[in-house]
Specification:
Elements lengths: L1 H19 L2 E13 L4 E13 L2 E6 L2 E6 L4 E6 L4 E6 L4 H11 L7 E9 L2 E12 L2 E10 L5 H14 L2 H5 L8 E15 L13 E20 L13 E2 L10 H6 L3 H5 L7
Parallel strand pairs: 6-12
Antiparallel strand pairs: 1-2, 1-11, 2-3, 3-4, 4-5, 5-6, 7-8, 8-9, 9-10, 10-11
């Protein structure tokens, strides 16, 4: 009986250790809709996000991101280049804003709506939030699940990323819902002036009212799994060399040595329209 009890306890402890060391693998798609003149453009891109401890790998379209929070670095690999380049964490400039949007949710104060949904096979609570960046208002709807496997691992990684992104964002970390967002829907509205029609007369043509344009990004999770992830998944494939940061990204040497300013985190929700 004693041996059986010890064996049973060993199995339980081993099981706990396995769960504690597991990561989370999230798959889904990102749907982007852009209202333009005269119509609407849309696209859908599949993505995979792997997280274990302080490391993450994000694959979206032709881009792969390898994030190591413990080393304060991000490796960027684009399909077809045969090489990768390294940025500090948080990454700087416009490319940094796009990368941070893959890692962090929009920085708004989330409020529960009281609605409980079932998405990707798991229950989630719906939240809404409002914000403004560069005078452009945006709204957020999200459904966060604490029931999905790996929800705690995901939330812990996001909180760590926020803490490393600057004091301003770390202060807002308690306002982000716990768990995994099974849907995250962000709509940005911009107001752009319309040039008046050209006139040969000396009198200036009357100004036309500004046009409102919307850019909507909806992230939809289709599957979530908790499992141990091979260490090699968090590194670029063997044989690829590290190259200098490509020109044209607008990154200054000072930003590489110091990391990105808080503005990259503050603007993480913004996509160039």
């Amino acid at each position: 009986m004693k041996l059986s009890a010890i064996a049973f306890a060993s199995i339980i402890i081993a099981g706990w250790a396995g769960v504690a060391g597991a990561g989370v693998v999230i798959q889904g798609h990102e749907d982007a809709t852009r209202s333009t003149l005269p119509g609407v453009k849309s696209s859908s891109t599949p993505y995979t996000k792997m997280i274990e401890g302080q490391q993450a790998k994000i694959v979206i379209g032709t881009m792969q991101l390898f994030i190591d929070l413990s080393a304060d670095k991000v490796l960027v690999l684009t399909k077809g280049r045969g090489a990768y380049y390294q940025l500090p964490f948080p990454p700087p400039s416009t490319i940094g804003e796009l990368i941070m949007r893959r890692i962090l949710p929009p920085m708004v104060k989330y409020k529960k709506t009281g609605k409980h949904l079932t998405l990707a096979g798991y229950g989630c609570d719906q939240y809404t939030g409002m914000g403004e960046i560069d005078s452009a208002p945006y709204s957020v709807e999200a459904c966060y699940s604490t029931d999905a496997p790996g929800a705690q691992d995901y939330a812990a990684f996001v909180k760590s990323a926020l803490a490393k992104s600057g004091k301003a964002s770390a202060a807002a970390s308690d306002e982000i819902p716990q768990g995994i967002p099974l849907e995250l829907d962000t709509t940005i509205t911009t107001k752009e002036p319309v040039s008046p029609a050209v006139s040969d007369q000396k009198q200036a043509a009357p100004e036309k009212p500004a046009e409102f344009r919307e850019f909507r990004v909806k992230i939809v999770v289709t599957s979530v799994a908790s499992r141990s992830i091979e260490a090699g998944e968090f590194r670029p494939p063997a044989g690829l060399k590290r190259e200098p940061i490509p020109r044209g990204l607008g990154i200054r040497a000072k930003e590489i040595s110091q990391g990105a300013p808080n503005s990259s985190v503050r603007r993480a929700v913004l996509v160039k329209l």
